[in-house]
Every structure is written in structure tokens, then in C-alpha cells.
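Ticket #4471: structure export looks truncated?
Reporter: QA, pipeline team
Priority: medium

Steps to reproduce: submit the single chain below to the structure queue and open the exported record.
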Amino acid sequence: MRVVVLSDTHAPRRWKSCPPRVAELLVGADVILHAGDVCVPSVLAELAAYAPVHVVKGNNDGPDLDAPETLELDLGGLRVGMIHDSGPARGRTARMRRRFPEADLVVFGHSHIPLDESGDGLRIFNPGSPTDRRRQPHGTVGVLRVEGGALVEAEIVPVT
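Actual output as written to the record:
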């Protein structure tokens, strides 16, 4: 299973339409995860043209975005938790383990800082932002490969 992970697209201020490099990565995705700050629902319709989309609400998402604050799902046997803001870096893996006790992987956003880290029996993954890199060298998205219920590959891909 090929999973494309996005966060913090901040449309329409930053995401006018799907950036070409992001679109290239979306082709062939089995599922898309968006970790919040979509800002306008039309982004989700645009993404859904590529694959089914799972989304959580971010701090910049208004009432017109119908999404939960957290989400737990099974992706081919991999137990995934999703949240927009995972809190401060210090103690993050332990905090996410408590919040999602059954998860193998927690996907989050908010900071715009790409991160792939393990600790406390959990892997946490922030894809960064494809459109608002802030102090990062590139806009980024994540690409995950799930096989046999396990995360076998996780890549943070520069798109700008």
C-alpha cells in the first residue's frame, strides 16, 4: 500500500491548486492522509480525485471542514493515529503513545517541520508542508509504504 501524507496546505493563501510535484506523487497512491490545516474543503475534493482521503481538523480549519480532531485507522494492518498538533517536541513520543495506545504510527502536522522519529514503542511522522516551508529548506510531503501490516518505508520528499 502506497500512502501519501500531507499537512498544512493552507489553501487558498498557499495552495492555489495542487502543485505539479505533489500531483506527481499522488498518482498511484492507495490512500492520502492530511494532518490538518487544509483551510478550504475544495482541497480535499482535489485530493480525492487521486485516492481516498482521511483528514483531521487543524487549528486553521473552520466549521466548513467536516473532520474530527483525531482519527484512528487501519491501513493494511498498520494501526495509524492522526492528530494535527502533537504538542511540544519534548516528551512527544510518550505523549502520543498515551493518546494513541494501540497505534504503530502517529501522523501529525502543525509545525511545518518534517520529522520521522521513533520512541516509546511508537513511530511518529510529520510530512512538513508542501506549500509553506517556513524555516525549512523545501516544501515537503511524506510517502509511506505499508506491507503485511508493517511500515516498511517512510520518506520525506522535497516538492519545492
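Status: closed, not a bug. The export was complete when the record was re-opened. Leaving a note from the reviewer for reference: The beta strands are 2-6, 31-34, 53-55, 70-75, 78-83, 105-107, 115-119, 122-126, 140-147, 150-158.
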